[in-house]
Design a protein that fits this description.
Blueprint: H1 6-23, H2 25-42, H3 47-56, E1 75-83, E2 93-99
Antiparallel strand pairs: 1-2
Helix pairs in contact: 2-3
Amino acid sequence: MVEFDSEQSQRLKQQCMDEAASSKFELLEIARTIAKEVAVSQGSVTADDVAMELSDRSLPQLGAAAGSLFRNGSFYWTGLRIASKQTLNHGRELKVWKLKT
């Protein structure tokens, strides 16, 4: 039987995001610094931009912790979405973020 409970769904989502973020806290902080650098240089940033920079710096990928990347109060969503260029994301839509000033 399929259960429908939007409040429980949001609680579980937040719980999973918190667990993923805490398991990669140091890497997440590095990735947020990278996101800020990219946003300053390009004007906006996506999770793909950060993933590419992590790869270029021979750092591990965030995995599930990427869902918490822009949830620290330093960024705001522009309202735009673009298709991911990462093959493993199968064209999933990504939000485009800007750095708060």
